[in-house]
Amino acid sequence: MPPTALAEVDVVVIGTGAGGAPLLARLAQAGFSVVALEAGEHWQPDRDFATDERAQTKLFWNDERLSAGQDPVAFGSNNSGTGVGGSTLHYTAYVPRPQPDDFTLHQDSGAGVDWPLSYWDLEPYYDEVERILGVSGPSPYPWGPERTPYPLAPLPLNGAAQLMARGCRALGLRTAPAANAALSAPYFQAGIGWRRACTNRGFCQAGCTTGGKASMDVTFIPLAIAHGAEVRSGCFVTQIETDPQGRVTAVIYQRGDQEERQPCRALFLCAGAIETPRLLLLNGLGNQSGQVGRNFMAHPGMQVWGQFPESVRPYKGIPGGLISEDTHRPTDADFVGGYLLQSIGVMPVTYASQVARGSGLWGEALHSHMQGYNHTAGINILGECLPYDHNYLELATELDGRGLPKPRIHFTNGENEQRMNAHAENLMQAIWREAGAETTWTFARNAHIIGTCRMGLDPTQAVVNPEGRVFEVPNLYILDNSVFPSALSVNPALTIMALALRTADCFIARTRRGEV
Judging by DSSP bridges, how do beta strands 339-344 and 322-324 pair with one another? Predict the structure, then answer.
């Protein structure tokens, strides 16, 4: 049976996370007819979210992804989400800006790849995103160039943040409250209305029940819907149709047990650094350069945990409360790039699973360790990861429940990342010693999934141009963490949102000039 055909729209957006939601809102505000297709559900936080880790696993992208290499990356809750809002439903709302030299790593060090645009190209969009989200943070910010003050004052520091501040102070490291996309006070969002302040319940990674955390479902999505955008949940895209000239004409997706076909004049692919290249490879699109799926990166995210005599209660407060960027470009580094330090709170099931995986404790030994949970605090890094030929995504021969090849992701930390982790572990151990930790342990990990559809100027070395347009498909755009040429030594969400607004503005301008 042929798929159900629907009326043509100006734009289809696949994915409603940090890339898709701002695009959707901007294009709807500009008068385009836009439809967003989201694989997950459209949750109602006050009804569907609970202060219960196990109940909230429905927010994670739980389809199996095959992980290979010497440092196979954990997926699921670590990297992507499902539902209207994407991974922002369970992100920690940690939104520091990159610094200008993050965009020029190769120019400065000879390693990695430079971005085809600069910090200054994105600066007005950072300002705008921070204003829309209602970011809470310190003003002035201690690192990087001068910037527009954050809309709200910092959130309170939880126990882990206070202990990290103590240890850093003893070592002469500067710290500051982190920038968080969670409201420290009630906040009026233009076009939406008032949002309630964060209650410091600490379960950000299990979905925010109050709307105090600026996930896409309570910010850009309602703004898009208010301007006429349609959001279709439970829609898994399988095919992208093109005409003889190579232009996208429609997408085919599964909704329940039905197959539907949505014609469109332009397509924005915002499904993340795994599903975006997977969909391109499945459809044989955008890969004349051979770069689709290549250059996979995952931030070094090593954690050091300490147990302290005093009560910490790590489930309380915003998880990432304190930051230091004194390690952005360490003077004693034997590696290129750098990293930031952040305090981390943690929920009990998440922490127990990390102890079991990272320390090998099980049974009575794990039970005994968890008796100290309320006295536990963590620090982690978020560091630059270089692109390597040996890190990539491919389609496996093994099929998923829909009969499609599963993605297989190869990842091995390079020597640069290994040296960065060693440097950071020594420093974090010293911070916890100075803060009074009785015991410490290290959990080696990589966070975030980046690359696979690189942005660049050379169509033989990149998949999209600086406007996010696929080189050989003129009406196909990509906007998510897959387009990052380098990892940046900060969390990616804020930059994805800023890029989304910039890409939307470029598309609107091109359309009005008759170039789309």
Answer: antiparallel
Helix or strand (DSSP H, E) at 281: helix 272-283
Cα–Cα dist 345/504, whole Å: 35
- Only one residue has tokens 């969670």, namely 182
464: tokens are 């999209």
Q: What is the distance between the alpha carbons of residues 500 and 116, in angstroms, rounded to a whole number?
A: 15
The pLDDT confidence band at residue 1, using thresholds 50, 70 and 90, is: low
Please say whether the beta carbons of 263 and 382 come within 8 A.
Answer: no
pTM confidence score: 0.96
| 348-403 tens-digit pLDDT | 888 999 999 888 999 999 999 999 999 999 999 999 999 999 999 999 999 998 89
Give 57: exposed, middle or buried? Use CB within 10 Å, 0-12, 13-18, 19+: middle
In this structure, the number of other CB atoms found within 10 A of the CB of residue 484 comes to: 25
- Distances 350 to 56, 78, 347 between C-alpha atoms, Å: 12, 11, 6
Residue among 324, 377, 379 nearest 489 (CA)? 324
